[in-house]
Amino acid sequence: xxxxxxxxxxxxxxxxxxxxxxxxxxxxxxxxxxxxxxxxxxxxxxxxxxxxxxxxxxxxxxxxxxxxxxxxxxxxxxxxxxxxxxxxxxxxxxxxxxxxxxxxxxxxxxxxxxxxxxxxxxxxxxxxxxxxxxxxxxxxxxxxxxxxxxxxxxxxxxxxxxxxxxxxxxxxxxxxxxxxxxxxxxxxxxxxxxxxxxxxxxxxxxxxxxxxxxxxxxxxxxxxxxxxxxxxxxxxxxxxxxxxxxxxxxxxxxxxxxxxxxxxxxxxxxxxxxxxxxxxxxxxxxxxxxxxxxxxxxx
Amino acid sequence: xxxxxxxxxxxxxxxxxxxxxxxxxxxxxxxxxxxxxxxxxxxxxxxxxxxxxxxxxxxxxxxxxxxxxxxxxxxxxxxxxxxxxxxxxxxxxxxxxxxxxxxxxxxxxxxxxxxxxxxxxxxxxxxxxxxxxxxxxxxxxxxxxxxxxxxxxxxxxxxxxxxxxxxxxxxxxxxxxxxxxxxxxxxxxxxxxxxxxxxxxxxxxxxxxxxxxxxxxxxxxxxxxxxxxxxxxxxxxxxxxxxxxxxxxxxxxxxxxx
Lengths: 299, 258
Description:
The complex is a heterodimer.
Chain A: E1 4-15, E2 18-29, E3 33-37, H1 44-51, E4 59-64, E5 67-68, H2 73-78, E6 80-83, H3 95-103, H4 112-121, H5 137-149, E7 155-159, H6 167-183, E8 187-192, H7 195-201, E9 204-209, E10 212-218, E11 228-233, H8 239-242, E12 246-247, E13 252-256, H9 259-271, E14 276-282, H10 286-298
Parallel strand pairs in A: 3-8, 3-9, 6-7, 7-8
Antiparallel strand pairs in A: 1-2, 1-4, 4-5, 9-10, 11-13, 11-14, 12-13
Chain B: H1 2-13, H2 16-39, H3 49-82, H4 84-89, H5 95-129, H6 138-166, H7 170-181, H8 183-194, H9 230-254
GO molecular function, one term (chain A): ATP binding
Protein name (chain A): ABC transporter ATP-binding protein
Keywords (chain A): ATP-binding, Nucleotide-binding, Transport
């Protein structure tokens, strides 16, 4: 893995007496897509606001490419491109004017060729010359990504980037973010309250709830721990005497076992002349986990 | 900073209402030449393009003040309302520079409005009333214009400070407009209540032209006591401007953008 481009150390935010984010610590490396998952109101956007310097931290530090957002704000922001909440742009200007406007705010000159390249990339075509107020939400989202990428940042932060996009659009953005991460080594941070989206897009995911770190998880690694297999047979009566299992219904039961053990179990069943119809590996999905976490936290 | 000001100017001039205002302002300069000429008794008709431009300028100054107050407030409050303030403030530019670029962009716009209006009214006045000025010369007119910039800048700065503190449109516009429109009454009340101590009130220093030695510029209505000269009075206003700019910048720098 590449070098760390974003590091949060014990970041805390309180407004008045209310703690909104409690001591978050995590790192994001270049070239990875990092998911930021939590139910609505869990402190995702607050954290993103702190990373981008829009609000102050009560405690802790955030470093972007080695520059602290609190003490070296401009150097840190040079390396960030972001959409915070909705892609808010100037409706009375054309897409291109919007891009020119934000290009003017970069620390190095953004060439006209770069702007054309970005427009091509997000596929806005001729609509780039139309006023943004006439754009669909999907087009605004794409223009938002375009303005975030203009100055070639090292870290791209997208808050709910697929909000309001149609399935084709979501897929396109997903592929595009992949490409960005792989080819240009950009670290992409995507927040979402939708697990399925994060699972499809991200390399690693951080789950937070009520401003508290719950779990960080690598989506490429198989879930450690339980390996469960569901087996369907003609009938399950008496099987629990034969092997250690949990009967689900008349025709199916579940065992906790790894690959080798499963093979042994099947051999045993066959030797007892029990017909096996189906063997289904049951992974405890992230979704179960996510639901358990959010349910446990709200009840 | 220059790029930031350019951006702000682009955002000002891309809007229709600014272009409409400029058109109305310039049309007015032409229209007065035809309307007022017939209304006024012959003695008060204009002796030259300078006196004509002077009359026009008093109208222009008022319209530009009112319009620029709302322009100033909207240029900041709209960013908060549309949420674009977030996009602005995640750029590698200091917050103070971003805020002040808006202020300077409005000042530049105001200068543009006034110069354009003056040029048009002089041209129209010259054609209609002749190019030869009497003892009310062009340099006197330009001096008056310079003096009148002081209250315009003051009210823009006041609006700028208020909107930086409140980030909404209605209250800063209302407060600034009220003070601007009631300025004369405020000064009168303060003077009669506090006598000479009312000089600490900055509103009494805004009509600097009253302190000018030339009777054609100052019209003898100086309400300030003797220890204030043109220079000290001007500096007193400048100090107020600086304080307002500092307050706006400090608050804006510390603000949490939600």
